[in-house]
């Protein structure tokens, strides 16, 4: 059984109230704890192995060392996409290093955020939102309760503290690589329309086509929704097109979508990368378990979560984040799914070094 405040009070020879004031940081107009007694309480707590209850501390002080983390969908952990778990890893690692706990909130997109907004608790020190839906009531609720918040991948205009990735550059890199390999008919599996990363990735794709003098064919831009099953079905339809209209390359919205595309190409009797080159996005560990291994735009996903938590904690502790609006760079990891030779890989890295 863990030690209690009563145990500490008995050991030090003081009151439970004095122990509570010291360990929880509560303010008292009537009770003063001398520096000597305070140190004895802290030493006794350490010796007895006392573990502070963060919620009890929040009740005593009106604030806590708990960060809320809100995912966009209830199924974010259930579709085998490592993206959200890697962001969560970055958040929790940073929080733990600074002595904060992390609490998972209801999904942001359920009922367009209305239900999630009702769940926000003022005892939470601050909240991190991952890709919240546009026009969400979450921001207003946080502002009403004066709870600081950081948005991840929601655009630089989504709040006072934001962490984003250069998705336009990512779409440009992926498509530019494919045009550099000689592909002309390049399909794009679009993400979800309500997720803000979808548009800049598509814009980068269009810009790379224009740069290469390739006319955009709307027939080759189809919904993949960042989902393996949806992307599989969409790619099967693309592979069923006549040979002169069928794409020879696919830029998928994320690694999960790219995996669905690879399976669909194979099930259509074609080969990756022999008949169709595939490039994904995020470059999670998932990209190394596909067969063939996936060429993918690299976003340092754990770093996205880490920077968001670091930014929020700096604000909470009065230090102020060095950059309230942070956009992380991307690069391209070339593996087997695009069919690039080693020579062309080296040439690509030289010509299109990320900036």
Question: Topology of this structure?
Answer:
Layout: H1 5-12, H2 16-24, H3 35-48, H4 54-61, E1 66-70, H5 82-97, E2 101-105, H6 114-119, E3 126-130, H7 138-144, E4 149-152, E5 162-165, H8 167-180, E6 186-190, H9 198-211, E7 221-223, H10 228-239, E8 249-252, H11 255-267, E9 277-282, E10 295-298, H12 301-316, E11 325-328, E12 331-333, H13 342-351
Helix pairs in contact: 1-2, 1-3, 5-12, 8-9, 10-11
Report on the structure:
This protein is of the alpha/beta class. The protein has three domains: 48 residues, 434 Repressor (Amino-terminal Domain), CATH 1.10.260; 127 residues, Response regulator (Rossmann fold); 155 residues, Rossmann fold, CATH 3.40.50.2300. It has 13 helices and twelve strands. Strands 2-1-3-4-5-11 form a six-stranded parallel β-sheet, covered by helices on one side. Helix 7 links the parallel strand 3 and strand 4. Helix 1 crosses helix 2, helix 1 packs across helix 3 and helix 10 crosses helix 11. The longest helix is centred in the N-terminal third of the chain and has 16 residues. It starts with a helix and ends with a helix.
């Amino acid at each position: 059984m863990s030690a209690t405040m009563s145990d500490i009070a008995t050991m030090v020879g003081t009151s439970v109230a004095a122990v509570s004031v010291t360990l929880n940081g509560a303010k008292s107009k009537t009770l003063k704890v001398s520096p000597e007694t305070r140190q004895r309480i802290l030493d006794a707590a350490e010796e007895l192995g006392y573990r502070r209850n963060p919620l009890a501390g929040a009740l005593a002080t009106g604030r806590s060392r708990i960060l809320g983390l809100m995912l966009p969908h209830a199924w974010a952990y259930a579709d085998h996409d490592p993206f959200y778990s890697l962001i969560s890893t970055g958040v929790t690692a940073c929080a733990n290093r600074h002595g904060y706990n992390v609490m998972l909130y209801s999904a942001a997109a359920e009922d367009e955020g209305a239900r999630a907004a009702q769940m926000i608790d003022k005892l939470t020190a601050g909240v991190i939102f991952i890709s919240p839906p546009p026009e969400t009531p979450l921001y207003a609720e946080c502002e009403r309760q004066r709870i600081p918040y950081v948005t991840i991948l929601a655009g630089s205009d989504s709040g006072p503290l934001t962490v984003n990735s250069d998705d336009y550059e990512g779409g440009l890199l992926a498509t530019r690589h494919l045009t550099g390999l000689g592909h002309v008919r390049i399909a794009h599996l679009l993400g979800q329309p309500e997720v803000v990363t979808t548009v800049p990735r598509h814009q980068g794709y269009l810009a790379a086509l224009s740069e290469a003098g390739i006319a955009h064919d709307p027939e080759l831009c189809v919904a993949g929704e960042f989902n393996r099953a949806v992307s599989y079905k969409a790619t099967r339809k693309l592979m069923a097109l006549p040979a002169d209209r069928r794409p020879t390359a696919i830029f998928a919205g994320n690694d999960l979508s790219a995996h669905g595309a690879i399976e669909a190409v194979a099930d259509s009797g074609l080969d990756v990368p022999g008949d169709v080159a595939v490039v994904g996005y995020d470059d999670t560990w998932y990209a190394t378990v596909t067969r063939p291994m996936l060429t993918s735009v690299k976003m340092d996903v754990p770093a996205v979560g880490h920077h968001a938590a670091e930014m929020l904690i700096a604000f909470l502790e009065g230090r102020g984040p060095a950059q309230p609006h942070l956009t992380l760079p991307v690069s391209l990891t070339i593996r087997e799914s695009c069919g690039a030779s080693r020579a062309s890989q080296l040439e690509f890295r030289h010509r299109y070094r990320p900036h």
